Queue: 3 jobs
Job 1
Amino acid sequence: MKTSSRVPHRTVGSTTLSARANAVAFSGAAVISFAFSMAMSAQADHYELAIITLSLALAVSCGCLVNAVRSSSQNPVAIMAWIYVVFLFIMPGLIHLNIDKFPFFSKSYSEQTALTGSLLVLLFVTLFGASSKSGPLAQSPSKRMHGDHNLFLTLAVIGTLCAIAVIGVFLIGTPVFTRRIAAINEARGSGPVFLTLLAVTKASGFIAFAIAVIMIKKRFSYINVIILCITGSIFVFVNNPLATARFVFAGYMIALAFIAIRPTVLVKTYLVLAAGIMQVTVFPFWDHLARGQRGSEFNFSPVNYLSNTGDFDGFQSTLNVVDMVAEQGLEFGKQLASAFLFFVPREFLEWKSRGTGVDAAAHAGYTFTNISAPAPAEFYVDFGFLGLAILSVVAGRTVAAFDRAYMQAGFEKDVYSILIPVVAAGYIAIVMRGSLVAVLGPVCISLAMAAICAAIIGRGRRL
């Protein structure tokens, strides 16, 4: 007897109910977060308008995060973006405004600067949130295409990636991969060639391991286990957690997690809860180890960590950019162009920026300038409020496109095409944090390598 293969579809009534439920969830989360923020700020006698504005931005962001979690769409990139915005950007910024103390050099800012920075964030989260939604696919999951792949071609891709990683280690030197992150910072003087080679080496190890994870998820076999062990060993060596930036290593782990586990509503709920807990437990301890303090005592103080650590300097960096633009004017594309031309040595482009965060920190008089610059600041420094509005929408639509590619991977497209959106999901927090000059190189290299590998392996299935 022939069974029906009709694709399920939503009726107008169910779509209306879903839209109403989303509106109620958004409103509820927004109202609760705004009320909580204002209650915590009741005693503050400074930055009143900035606190109200940034609280509104938190309300919008919490509403978007709740709707992203509740959505039946598998949207890992949007989820990770909102986790960064809520937990690592806006919440610490509100704490800093309330206590009138910012992480770097205990600086304070004028009321106007704080209000302008808060308005930037509010505009960004509103437009980014409105444009980053990705609806569910119309095709039934039962129609997934798990077509056979050319095993030899897949192994050839893995072997090539492993060879690139090993060659990279020999060219760069093992100390960069075995010592703490300070060794990498010392070697940064080698310029973009060194940084590009380092990014290619790390990305090769990660993508080879990710392909092995997909292989063993498709079919468990002894040969796949052996491949997984080999690629896993290379991945761990070239991406040693103590010699790799925490956001980078966490991004790799997030990407692997989204390959292994599809983000259902329950999974997304656990992920958000875990992010909130890790923010005040795992991250400070990891920071303690990464900065070479293993021999000293670790003092657990979440409030002190959120208030004083440079890990949560995003809003302060935004205020530095506001002050810089007020005095020096807009950059008119200089910062974004510098980021996308990461592979060109500065000697050939004398106008090339060191990064928005670096320039703003130098303008503020910092003695240490390796500082972040969140997306709202990056967009604003080049093109002002109008550019911020346009680029926020572009960023939102890009996130939605990556999430749709993630959902399509496996039945509308080849299963290995999942490599591209999971890399985006892993790196989105770094991109949102900035500075783009510092992070866009590894992101573009990883995405390009993922796309090339997915295309080669997918081509083998069609031959």
Job 2
Amino acid sequence: MSAKNQMMLVDLFMTAFLILSFIRWEGSGAFHFVVGTICLLAFALHIWLHRKWLKATTGALLAGKLSPKLRAKYLVDALLLIVWVAAIVTGILAVVPFLDGVSPSPAGRLHGVSSRLAVPLLLIHIFQHRGQIRSYFKK
């Protein structure tokens, strides 16, 4: 399988599970945790598959050779990384109090805030990479 196809599959998989993570019903906490864990693994794989771009872009940024367009993409990606790490860490920290019946815990509240901050950043990220996403579907 080509690298482009691998990236497309991981991105589609990650997007599908991210959407699933926002589905709520009574007793959906375990489902949310499993789906969130799958999202974490897909997110890590997404970063690993884009590591060459990240390395090259970080080098260009540090050398002062990054175009304003790429600088904006990098800024959104960096903010998205920070917010997702916060959502992941607070989600993990919120599991134990949630299972013990303490709801909402401080970590759970921070998890909700960071998750909601991630959504607009994710939409901007997808918009910024729309050309690449379109290329996934061209032959």
Job 3
Amino acid sequence: MADKAKEQHNNILLAVGGFSAVVAIVALIGFLALGRDPEVIQGEMEVEEYRVSGKVPGRILELRVKEGDMVAKMAQAQSAVDAAAAMEQMAKNGARKEQIQAAKQLLEQAKAGLEVAEKSYNRVKALFEEEVVSAQKFDEAEAMYKSAQAQVKAAQSQYDMAVNGARAEEKRAASATVGQARGAVQEVTSYIKETVQVAQMAGEVTDVYPKVGELVGTGTPIMSIAVMDDQWATFNIREDQLKDIKVGAELKVRIPALDAETTMKVTSMKDKGSFAVWKATKASGQYDQKTFEVKARPTTAVKDVRPGMSVILEK
């Protein structure tokens, strides 16, 4: 009886051992045949974007683009400049021939008057010395003579100024006036240009904020434009997955929406900070794994890519 029980016990042990061996062999075959599933890291495509805004407030009169459109890079004050420039040129060139001729005639007329006044003064002086005329007559003749001398000096100065042109100080003042007027024109022109906003870089209009007829203030965004050629992918990767990932490394990635594969080069890596998602591992006596933001740019531009498309990195 004891021998029969012992034999039965051995049969059970053999059966259990055989079954365990079969399970182990099947598991080993499955592991070798299928291998481990690759670890998938999902990122997102992004593109550079800028906002169009003006530095003068106003009302929207017309919007010539809408979301999805592609865009390409693209006076009264003037009269003041012309007048100032004319004054500057006149100061540099001097007086016209007619002005010089007129000044010369006035000088000759003043000289003729001085000659007459001088003769009259000499005659009255001789008679005054002989006590033929009164002192009042002599004073009048003397005053007329001195006045004629002053007129000659003034006419001579006008004539010299017409011949020699403006002084250096006047020329500098005229040049300064031109510069000031041109500055005013540039300022007015810059404000006029700001009343019509144009794209600074080629791209696609992603958002249009105001509507026609609405008021916008200084610096208020009018629309956002995405520069589709300036593209990159952003991944949030735990530090235990960062092996072989470093700045300058190339990654093979897949974009499911386009059913395309491409190569990207890592351009930056930075800690997401204590507020970011992290994986607790202290329970196993290790450390808390932090998350890093990894940015990678395609080595060649990916056609038809859109911001927000998923990018798959398998490790």
